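Section 5: illustrative case.
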């Protein structure tokens, strides 16, 4: 693998042991995937934040890394969701001992100059790479959004790889950084109108079928950005999809379309009955949910507004969490949306979500979600049942 003179200095320890360790990780990744060189990145998004997922060993690694004053990111970098709402953990019932360790993890990242906003939607809070720019992102739903909707270029990085890239400002040039890896492998023809949670069901269904291939979607009606967010999150969680194209919509669709015309590639068709069956399969319980968790990936301001408008004049019978970033909550506070949701009995929850928090310790049994990603992960990661549906159908009011 070719290294520039500056990269060789990093690799040989000229800038200290931490940067050397990070460059060794990047070179090892490059060797594994046959990269010929490094490429400069413009931003990073780092996973491995929740204490629930990384535990004491992850905490010790981060504290040790952050103890080196040279362990600083050199590109704008954001964090994935943590295991608790960093400000309101006590009101939500999270345990003090868990929260103490979670705050130590966030403190370590803060010492490395990473934004401690803790969100899986960094593109909603200012980490917005330009089309064609190389980045190192690790949250699967953010990766697929960056590649597909923004037209940036990133592989599905692991937490240590993304953190190393953030510190070095480099990543190995392979995979989705290359034109030839962004070519569609198959066409997905959706022959029915799609609305709301349908997009998550479609993503879940297609992801399970195609694994890590690149699909090219033909939709009957035009999806909105929040629909594409749900679609990508489901594709990435049920399969390992990191890039998709949508005809006449996503930034690289013309490039993809030209390659489709050159090659006779596989095509699959999705009908209304397929979506209906998938929606039913994603529910593991027929009981009414005692907690509704929305915002996987984290809710946009538009989604928060839709929820608030639906709740006007209602009083919730089941509990409601609307998971989002602290940035979106600040906007919702100013617009009066938070007050509407709270008046109905709901809460806007920041920094965390239903998947990476220890929600299984809070006494809930059935979680209602409108996210296929959450429906896929909650039974295995939290041991709880889920009901998957559009949020309006999940909400019970007096």
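Designed sequence:
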């Amino acid at each position: 693998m070719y290294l520039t003179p500056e990269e060789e200095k990093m690799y040989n320890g000229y800038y200290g042991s931490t940067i050397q360790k990070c460059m060794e990780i990047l070179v090892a990744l490059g060797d594994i995937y046959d990269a010929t060189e490094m490429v400069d990145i413009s931003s990073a998004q780092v996973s491995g934040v929740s204490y629930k997922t990384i535990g004491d060993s992850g905490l010790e690694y981060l504290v040790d890394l952050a103890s080196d004053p040279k362990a600083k990111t050199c590109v704008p970098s954001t964090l994935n969701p943590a295991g608790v709402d960093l400000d309101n953990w006590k009101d939500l019932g999270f345990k003090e001992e868990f929260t103490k360790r979670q705050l130590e993890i966030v403190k370590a990242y803060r010492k490395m100059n990473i934004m401690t906003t803790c969100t899986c939607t960094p593109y909603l809070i200012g980490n917005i790479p330009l089309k064609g720019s190389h980045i190192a992102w690790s949250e699967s739903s953010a990766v697929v959004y960056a590649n597909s909707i923004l037209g940036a270029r990133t592989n599905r990085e692991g937490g240590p790889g993304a953190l190393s890239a953030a510190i070095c400002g480099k990543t190995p040039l392979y995979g989705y950084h290359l034109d030839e890896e962004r070519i569609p492998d198959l066409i997905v023809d959706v022959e029915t109108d799609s609305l709301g949670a349908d997009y998550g069901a479609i993503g879940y269904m297609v992801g399970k079928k195609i694994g890590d291939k690149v699909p090219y979607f033909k939709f009957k009606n035009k999806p909105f950005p929040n629909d594409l967010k749900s679609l990508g999150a489901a594709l990435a969680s049920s399969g390992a999809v990191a890039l998709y194209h949508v005809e006449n919509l996503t930034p690289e669709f013309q490039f993809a379309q030209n390659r489709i015309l050159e090659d006779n590639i596989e095509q699959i068709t999705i009908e209304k009955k397929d979506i209906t069956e998938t929606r039913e399969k994603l529910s593991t319980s027929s009981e009414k949910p005692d907690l509704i968790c929305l915002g996987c990936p984290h809710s946009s301001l538009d989604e928060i507004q839709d929820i608030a408008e639906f709740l006007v004049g209602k009083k919730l019978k089941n509990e409601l969490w609307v998971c989002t970033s602290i940035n979106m909550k600040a906007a919702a506070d100013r617009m009066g949306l938070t007050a509407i949701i709270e008046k109905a009995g709901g809460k806007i929850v920041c920094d965390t979500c239903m998947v990476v928090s220890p929600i299984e310790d809070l006494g809930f049994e059935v979680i209602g979600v409108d996210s296929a990603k959450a429906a896929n992960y909650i039974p295995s990661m939290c041991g709880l049942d889920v009901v998957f549906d559009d949020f309006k159908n999940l909400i019970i009011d007096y």
